[in-house]
Amino acid sequence: MADGSHLPFKDNISYTKHISNLAHSKDMLVEAELGRLSGTEDDLTVEDYEARLTDVNQAQEFIDETGIDALAVCIGNVHGKYPASGPNLKLDLLEDLYALSSKKGVFLVLHGASGLSKELVKGCIERGVRKFNVNTEVRKAYMDSLRNPKGDLVHVMASAKEAMKAVIAEKMHLFGSAGKA
Description:
This protein is of the alpha/beta class. The chain contains six helices and seven strands, in the order αβββαββαβαβαα.
């Protein structure tokens, strides 16, 4: 994942192109983010006023200039928890981004997918999303398991691991990726 989303657009292109060239020389795929998600990830908080939706025109230039394989988009998705009012994803923007990216052979990624309804996930899949990041739900399952310890640390850790695996398995079935390499 090449994340230059905090950089000015042209700098993001330069940074991502460099990473893309290095990765492709080793036959590795490159995912890059265009737009900026609000919320908190790894103790880094991006305030709502700093967030930016992915611009379709910029996406075309970004894909053409960087040679990426996957584009992580911002369509109103957030890192961490959604507000009480729920997610407000711009599915029309996602459709436009898919129309562009599919012509270029680039697949779409949605970060901040924890807390999305099954219907919304299916709608995103129909509109071209091929990878979802759901870290918040996995971490929550782990922490919830630790709050209810069952004795020895070894058993507590095993229980926490199983709780995470259950969330991941559920999401893999929802995303249609279960049983695939």
